Amino acid sequence: MLEPVQRIPRYEMLLKDYLRKLPSDSPDWNDAKKSLEIISTAASHSNSAIRKMENLKKLLEIYEMLGEEEDIVNPSNELIKEGQILKLAARNTSAQERYLFLFNNMLLYCVPRFSLVGSKFTVRTRVGIDGMKIVETHNEEYPHTFQVSGKERTLELQASSEQDKEEWIKALQETIDAFHQRHETFRNAIAKDNDLHSEVSTAELGKRAPRWIRDNEVTMCMKCKESFNALTRRRHHCRACGHVVCWKCSDYKAQLEYDGGKLSKVCKDCYQIISGFTDSEEKKRKGILEIESAEVSGNSVVCSFLQYMEKSKPWQKAWCVIPKQDPLVLYMYGAPQDVRAQATIPLLGYVVDDMPRSADLPHSFKLTQSKSVHSFAADSEELKQKWLKIIFLAVTGETPDGLSEHPATLDDHPEPKRKSEC
User: What are the residues facing 265 on neighbouring strands?
Assistant: First the structure.
């Protein structure tokens, strides 16, 4: 069966040998040269067809290994390289066994499946060659590492040896260069990121998957510089820039193009760049509970700790604030530095009862409206009177303009009834 295929290269070899021995002034020279050109073209087509058949056969084998789920059997797809590799985890220092299939237009990042029958691999991520960058990294604990950064995901990989690493880097880079040559985008093909971490540029935020900074590489939030701890300030990753930040600095969500437009956790800086909102615009978008305690406490009519009870629930300590910019609303926080209020009470229309609830709480007072009952207790009578002076104004819709910063007493205000209702 191979005879017809092998005959064409033999004709090419015979004609080349014939032309070498044929005198240049021979009448057969031009015909022999033209025949060689024709047979060389035929041989080239024949070799190309053989390579395509072999490639298609290999694609079918890979298609079966992937459980016949990935649509890779296409004449335009060409397998460049495949092999085992280790993937370094972002959250810890463990190395996980993975398998790569490199094609001329994509990289399949697969997880081995330990099954006697059926598929051998599960595709975890398909990374397109378009926009891919390769960076050689240096890790003292894990040698032979390099980084593959694509729009869909960034992977830090470890080869089995230095030679294996160089072969992968060479194959990946040559594939990237060939891809961009076909698509005439040389301006992106030659660019290499000299930065070890290959940080995503501002223009690419949300469009390219970042490299995650490992948890053990930082001890404090990369935004607010607060130290991490296992209980109250744990580590989180910004899905846009890959930085390790605390919960406070990652309390934002933005649509990321590389992740299919899904809402993902990002840091404040990336949120403002991706969404286009400034600090002032962001404050307007915040819900009423999302105003920081320190923000309102520093510009408040009155603020202090009070004991608080709602209906028949147990008493609890709360940091209570009535801000100057919103003097008809009482904000309650768990602590003075909390970034989010636990609850708010719009005071307008409430009934104030300043009679103590019991002998155990001599400085207590109560706010009621319909079925809502809120009880408060101050540490002293002076503090109680200061709060009552502001609340008596708020329940009637008045603002405390021109109030002194000194503790207020009921003598400064017209004597109210024991129960005030509007």
Answer: 253
Can you read off the two tokens belonging to residue 315?
A: 């008493």
Q: What is the C-alpha to C-alpha distance for residues 249 and 240, in angstroms, rounded to an integer?
A: 13
pTM of the model: 0.44
Two tokens at 311? 């209906």
Tell me how far CA of residue 131 lies from CA of 90, 154, 184, 419, in angstroms. Answer: 22, 12, 13, 70
Instruction: Give the β-pairing of 106-112 and 95-103.
Output: antiparallel
Alpha-carbon distance values, 245 to 203, 251, 270 (Å) = 21, 10, 12
Instruction: Taking residues 407-419, report their average pLDDT.
Output: 39
Predicted confidence at residue 235, as pLDDT, reads 87
Q: Which amino acid is at 261?
A: G
The CA distance from 376 to 366, in Å, is 6
pLDDT band at 102 (very low <50, low <70, confident <90, very high): very high
Find the farthest-apart pair of alpha carbons in the chain and give their distance in angstroms, rounded. 130
For residue 81, what are the CA distances in angstroms to 106, 167, 174, 175, 216? Answer: 11, 9, 11, 10, 33
At residue 33, the 3 state secondary structure works out as helix
Contacts 24+ apart (CB under 8 A), 377-383: 377/306, 377/307, 377/308, 377/315, 378/304, 378/306, 378/307, 379/305, 382/407, 382/409, 383/304, 383/407
